[in-house]
Every structure is written in C-alpha cells, then in structure tokens.
C-alpha cells in the first residue's frame, strides 16, 4: 500500500504540510543487502501508556461552579497599584460571566476576566505552561506586546481567562501584570472562592447560553451540534446543523451587557415575543438584538442586558427569539448538577485526554494518536520494506538515533501511517517514515514548496535533502532527508525524515521559530542508516 504523507496541523495557524511521500511508480521488491540478527527496539523512550488520564474535573461540574462566580470578584484590587494602574478604577462587567476593571474606560490599562473561556487543546499546545499560585496555568503573549493572557484551566475544554492590556501608547510588563492578577485569582479560588454572582445584581448570571439554546430549540435540538462559542463561553453558544443540506448555517446566541440596541438612527425593528429587536441583515444571515432589560450596572457602556441571535433568515431568527425571551424572563431551571468542589488543576495534573506522549502532539482528528511502544527491527532492507506499512517501523529505526542526537525529551507517537518524535517545549517535531514505493529523486524539486535541494551521501547511501516553509524573507522552517534504501535515488524504497521548527510556546500568533537546530536531522539520519540499515 502506498503511504501518503498527509498534513498534520500544529495549533490553529501553523500547518505543517509535509511533502507527499507517495512514490511515482511501483516496482518489484528491493533485495536486502547483507544480513544481521533482528534487534528488538524498546520504547522511545519508555512510554507505554494506553489509557487516557482520569478526568477529575468533569466539565459539567466546572460549568455549574462557574455559573455561581462573580467574575468581578476574581479581580483583586490590591494588585492594581503594583501593575501601574491609576488609583481611580472603573468596574465594567461585560457579560454575566465576564468583567473588566480599567483606570480609564475605552483607552486605559485594563484587566479582564472571563469565567468560562473555551480553551481548546490547540491553544494549550501553543501556550506556555506556568504555575499561578499553586495552580496549573497557561500564558500567551497574544498578538501585541501590550497584551498578555493567562488561562487557569478548569476542565478539558474550559478555563478562567485573565487578560491584561496596557493603555494605548504606554509601555510596561503586560505579562508580569496578568500573572499577578491570575495568581491572586487562583488564591481566591483555592481559599474557598470569591463572592458568588447575584442574579439581582448580575442579570442572567445563573444561566448558560447553550442551556437557553437547547431549551428554545426543544425537540429540534437533535438536529444540531450545540457548543460554547467565542470568548464568552458561558454567555455565547452556536448550534451547528448536522445536515447542511437542510440548513446552510448555524445559529449563534450571545448575552452581553452593553448599550441600548435600539439606539441610533434608521433602526430597523421587528417584534420578538414581548420585545422589539434591532434587525441587521448580512449575506446569508440575519441578526436580531434586543434588550432583556436594564443591567442595573449604572454605566452608559453596559447599561442593558442585550441578547444577540444570528440565524440563516430573519424569520428563523424571530421564531427562535420569540421562544428565548420567555425563557430568560422566567426563573432559571435548576439542572441538578453539583458544582465542582475544586475548580483548578494542580501544576502536575493532566488537563488533557491525550495518552502518554500524545499530550505533546497536535493534529486533526482524522486519526487517533497513540504512543509508540516497540517493534523488532528487521535484519535486512527487504524486511524493512516489507514492514513499511506498519507506522512503527519509522519509530523502531530512528529511536536510538533520536535519543542520542536530540535527547531523552523526544518521545515517539503514532498518527495515521506515520511516526513522530515530540517533546514538551513544542519547538520541534520530527517525522520518520518508511515507504516501499517512493523514490528519493521525486522529492524537493518543486521550487514553489521547497528549496536548496541536494543529492548527498548519508552513511554510504544516496539521499536527497531539501528545505521547506519560510518565505517572504523568513528562514525555512522544515528540513527533510530522504534516504534511498537500495542505493539508488531512482529505485523505490526510502526512509524519510523531516524536522520541523515551531515557535516557542506562549509567543503568540506570528512568532518566528528558531531554526538553528534543523541541521541536527543530518546526524539523526546518519546514525539511523549506520546502525539500522545494512550496507
């Protein structure tokens, strides 16, 4: 079977599309050269976990606990002076479960908290792991030097997010400031928790947007996949249709504290139940915004509790809105879920369902990731080629060489038909694969996707090397070495390695990786060929 080197994705913005390793032709068996005894290769290094970590932080219990929190109470005012914020502060709740404190509305330095942020595995993979107080946390320097974020995970999909942003035109240590607020907030949570949110003072703080969405859709909810969406996880929800032939786009619901949606001129309105909604039309969508009433917060920027609903058509949105209004007017329906007694993770606790070394690997869901355990290395090249369809073959061949050159931090995992060596800093990923049909000469020649192609000798065997990625003045981020197993780059049968450099964790979108370590792949492949492949 021909092995395709499909793309694997690290994070949301970094796509590591590997060169296709699907040789251009068939060809008969490649005769093995020489002979030696089969060697059993152990784990790379020892990681034979086969069971996902126990989840001691059920997300439903975390949601129940987050519903009770007053997000503003998580902002410790004693920290503001040490971070350089002015003495006079404004408290501006943004939604039932989020809050901002600033020393000047709109333009001042600000600390914001979202009690219930949808923190994906990709975001955790890219962020820098830190300890906030005595809790596991992730730091992300965001897109701008003036902004920094810390997430306190409270489940495998949720966090409490702290964001600090410096006032426009000022300088300072945004990351140092947000860490101070996160540590103080973690201390409050560990010490019994801050004040609970009062529905009388924080309208709809006892609700979740997705619970409201399910209640409004009723029996139709089965037609959708319903999940939190956006920054305000508990206060925003998307219902994605399971059958896009019937319904082309999803339904978005958001609750926030903001200005009167009926303000302004030339406002188009429509009745939704007992409310009047502002209508905004888009290409293929319609948004309705209405006020559930005054927020009671006393500010001009957040004086109304506003619900925004976007659907495929205005009629569909109005029909659903008419069902949402009475749900929000009435008392919250208890769901019987006991809140989590302990929200935060200890620094050493796993907040991932990944097994073993797979916690340091990120890809799409087309294949599961499993830790590599072991596979005997065949005594002949023919044996290696015969086992090429087993993804463990690449791991078995490279395990010792990787350990000697790159170190014990690199551990092997299997994804799809390939072997990957991953490490906890997430600054590089090595892929090693064996393909019985591919020819080395077929790779690296496309000037649009690769550069610096060379034909070289690797421990007595011919090989092709080339670089990929980069461009626009940036250095290449990938380096590949394709070794011809039969001693001829025009003959099918290769062992291929690719080392990809990734930005350091926590540096944010657009960070440039350190590529100085890419030449180490030459050492890995040289040791692999010399020790595992007979001449």
Report on the structure:
By secondary structure, the chain is an alpha+beta fold. It folds into 3 domains: 223 residues, no CATH class; 132 residues, Jelly Rolls; 121 residues, no CATH class. Helices cover 17% and strands 30% of the residues. The strands form 5 sheets. An 8-stranded antiparallel sheet has the order 18-20-21-22-26-25-24-23. Strands 4-5-6-10-9-8-7 form a 7-stranded antiparallel sheet. A 7-stranded antiparallel sheet has the order 11-12-13-17-16-15-14. β5 and β6 form a beta hairpin. α4 packs across α5 and α7 packs across α8. The N terminus is likely disordered.
Summarize the SSE layout with pairings.
Layout: E1 8-10, E2 14-16, E3 39-41, H1 59-67, E4 90-95, E5 98-102, E6 110-118, H2 121-126, E7 128-132, E8 135-140, E9 147-153, E10 158-165, H3 174-190, H4 209-217, E11 224-228, E12 236-241, E13 251-258, E14 269-272, E15 275-282, E16 285-294, E17 304-311, H5 314-329, E18 369-371, E19 375-377, H6 381-386, H7 392-405, E20 411-415, E21 418-422, E22 428-435, E23 450-458, E24 461-468, E25 478-484, E26 494-501, H8 520-532
Antiparallel strand pairs: 1-2, 3-19, 4-5, 5-6, 6-10, 7-8, 8-9, 9-10, 11-12, 12-13, 13-17, 14-15, 15-16, 16-17, 18-20, 20-21, 21-22, 22-26, 23-24, 24-25, 25-26
Helix pairs in contact: 4-5, 7-8
């Amino acid at each position: 079977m021909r092995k395709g080197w499909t793309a694997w994705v690290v994070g949301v913005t970094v796509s590591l599309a590997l060169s296709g390793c699907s040789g251009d032709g068939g060809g008969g068996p490649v005769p093995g050269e020489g002979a030696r005894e089969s060697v059993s290769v152990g784990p790379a290094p020892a990681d034979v976990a086969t069971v996902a970590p126990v989840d001691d932080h059920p997300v439903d219990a975390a949601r129940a606990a987050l519903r009770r929190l007053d997000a503003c109470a998580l902002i410790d005012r004693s920290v503001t002076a040490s971070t350089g914020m002015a003495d006079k502060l404004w408290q501006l709740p943004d939604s039932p479960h989020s809050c901002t404190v600033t020393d000047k509305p709109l333009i001042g330095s600000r600390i914001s908290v979202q009690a219930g942020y949808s923190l994906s595995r990709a975001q955790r993979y890219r962020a820098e792991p830190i300890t906030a107080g005595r809790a596991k946390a992730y730091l992300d320097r965001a897109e701008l030097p003036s902004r920094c974020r810390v997430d306190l995970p409270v489940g495998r999909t949720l966090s409490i997010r702290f964001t600090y942003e410096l006032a426009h035109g000022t300088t300072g240590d945004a990351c140092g400031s947000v860490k101070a607020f996160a540590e103080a907030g973690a201390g409050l949570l560990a010490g019994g928790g801050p004040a609970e949110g009062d529905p009388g003072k924080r309208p709809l703080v006892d609700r979740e947007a997705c619970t409201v969405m399910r209640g409004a859709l009723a029996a139709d909810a089965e037609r959708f996949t319903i999940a939190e969406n956006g920054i305000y996880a508990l206060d925003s929800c998307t219902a994605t249709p399971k059958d896009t032939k019937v319904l082309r786009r999803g339904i978005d619901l958001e609750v926030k504290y903001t200005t009167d949606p009926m303000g302004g001129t030339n406002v188009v309105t429509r009745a939704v139940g007992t409310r009047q909604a502002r209508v905004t039309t888009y290409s293929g969508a319609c948004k309705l915004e209405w006020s559930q009433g005054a927020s009671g917060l006393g500010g001009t920027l957040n004086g109304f509790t506003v619900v925004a609903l976007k659907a495929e058509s205005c009629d569909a949105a109005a029909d659903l809105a008419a069902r949402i209004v009475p749900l929000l007017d009435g008392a919250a329906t208890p769901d019987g879920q006991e809140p989590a007694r302990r929200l935060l993770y200890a620094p050493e606790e796993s907040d991932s369902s990944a097994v073993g070394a797979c916690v340091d690997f990120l890809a799409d869901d087309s294949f599961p990731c499993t830790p590599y355990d072991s596979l005997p290395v065949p005594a002949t090249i023919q044996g290696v080629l015969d086992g090429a369809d087993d993804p463990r073959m690449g791991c078995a061949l490279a395990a010792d060489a990787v350990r000697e050159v790159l170190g014990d931090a690199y551990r092997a995992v299997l994804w799809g038909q390939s072997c990957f060596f991953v490490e906890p800093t997430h600054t590089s990923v090595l892929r090693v694969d064996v393909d019985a049909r591919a020819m080395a000469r077929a790779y690296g020649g496309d000037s649009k996707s690769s550069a610096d192609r060379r034909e070289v000798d690797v421990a007595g065997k011919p090989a092709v090397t080339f670089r990929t990625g980069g461009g626009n003045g940036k250095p290449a981020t990938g380096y590949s070495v394709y070794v011809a197993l039969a001693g001829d780059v025009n003959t099918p049968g290769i062992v291929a390695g690719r080392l990809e450099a990734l930005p350091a964790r926590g540096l944010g979108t657009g960070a440039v990786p350190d590529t100085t370590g890419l030449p180490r792949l030459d050492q890995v492949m040289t040791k692999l060929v010399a020790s595992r492949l007979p001449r």
